[in-house]
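[audit] Reproducing an earlier prediction to check determinism. Same input, same settings, fresh worker. If the tokens differ from the archived copy the diff job will pick it up downstream; this log only records the rerun itself.
[audit] input (241 residues):
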Amino acid sequence: MSDSTNHPKAVVLSSGGVDSTTVMAIAKAEGYDIHSLSFRYGQRHVLEVEAAERAANFFGARKHLVLDIDLRIMGASALTDDIEVPKGRDESAMQEGIPITYVPARNTIFLSYALAWAEVLGAADIFIGVNAVDYSGYPDCRPEYIEAFEKMANLATKATVEGKMKIRVRTPLVKMSKGDIIRRGIELGVDYSITHSCYDPSAEGKACGQCDSCLLRKKGFHEAGIHDPAAYLSLPVSTTG
């Protein structure tokens, strides 16, 4: 694919899940040339990287860059350490404190790499699928965190200090429910069968159906009135009531 284009460039952080894939659809619909960025960081659900590759291909990304950074060395998260992933929790339990699936400083690390690539590309916009409605437990998904990172980003790079560009960290989903996110994605033509959400998938790649991410995904598809195409090992417990 030729690099000659009049379209603005955007770096889109992609985990291959519902939120980041919807964000990629939004960036595409807004006319950006997509530069997709994903990470193998020692996560147990590394299948998400394959889903991110599918999303990048689906939306015709100019490039899908996958970086290897091993956060298992530090541990302290159920996603990167020998800690059991919580299963079968209801919504109230999910919202009590910061969950053990929180990976220390993950979004700060990811956004820092995205910032570096954005400067190299001359891309003023970084898209990230953070959400503070259905899952507010992660401190690095809050609007005030994103605002602070954006301010720092514009103090941190040669391109911004010299006035050649101004970085914007775009969070189009931050105030949307999961059901609204899915409905928006369907409007934009997202094929959610290419996505992966589960924190603890089987060796065959099937979703567990009971981790927080699976339960929130199922809840979102139910609220949107749309069939969830994910393959589950078992039906998730109800998150209603």
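[audit] rerun output stored. Observation attached for the diff report: The longest helix spans residues 106-121.
[audit] end
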